Amino acid sequence: MVSLWLCRCEESKETAHRMLHTLLEGRGCSPASIETAPGGKPFLPGGPYFSLSHSGPWALCAVGEEEMGCDVETFRPRRSGLPRYALSDREFQWFSQRGGAWEDFYTLWTLKESLCKCTGRGLDCSPRRLEVPLLQAGEGGIWDGFYFQSYGGEGWRGGCCTRLTPPPTQLLDGKDVL
């Protein structure tokens, strides 16, 4: 099972790390034992698995008993050609048919980032080659053997990807672990 904590804060990177350290210590694990796999993915030998993300005022932390990846993004203006560059033909068609809203782009992007983190590959190829399910904020789905869940609120989108069981549909309040 995977759990995710979201927190709105001033120092999102530091807050994401504080949440992780508190959660690991609560499980009797030392954050000092975190290592880095050859592809750059941080891990804790013997578990639990974890993933972190931060963007603007948002910090997201996932911890669980299976591999996962999570991502959060704050909406911000981007160059107009980014969706065509980053989305597969199928994703770009869906995005365009929905009006080309940045909210939809960020929903797909956070799912792509979550997949990259779950596999540990990182973004080692063109983002157009990484396909994810066509979800709206709050929806879950399965694609290519992975489970996905999308999250969202005003000004932000988030995603989680797992291999074995569907991610939770609800985010926990990160302030509860700080």
Structure characteristics:
single chain; 178 residues; alpha+beta; four-stranded antiparallel beta sheet; 30% strand
Give the SSE layout.
Elements: E1 2-8, H1 12-26, E2 35-36, E3 42-43, E4 49-55, E5 58-64, E6 68-74, H2 82-86, H3 89-97, H4 102-119, E7 140-143, E8 146-153, E9 156-162, E10 172-173
Parallel strand pairs: 1-10
Antiparallel strand pairs: 1-5, 2-3, 4-5, 6-9, 7-8, 8-9
Oligomer: single chain
Beta fraction of the residues? Answer: 25-35%
**Most strands sheet:** 4 strands, mixed
User: Unreliable segments (pLDDT under 50, ≥5 consecutive)?
Assistant: none
Helix content: 25-40%
What class would the helix/strand composition place it in? Answer: alpha+beta
Shape: globular
Helix count from the secondary structure assignment = 4
What is the CA-CA span between the terminal residues?
21 Å
Tell me the Rg in angstroms: 16 Å
Number of strands: 10
Q: What's the SSE pattern?
A: EHEEEEEHHHEEEE
- Strand arrangement within the widest β-sheet reads 4-5-1-10
**Average pLDDT reading:** 94
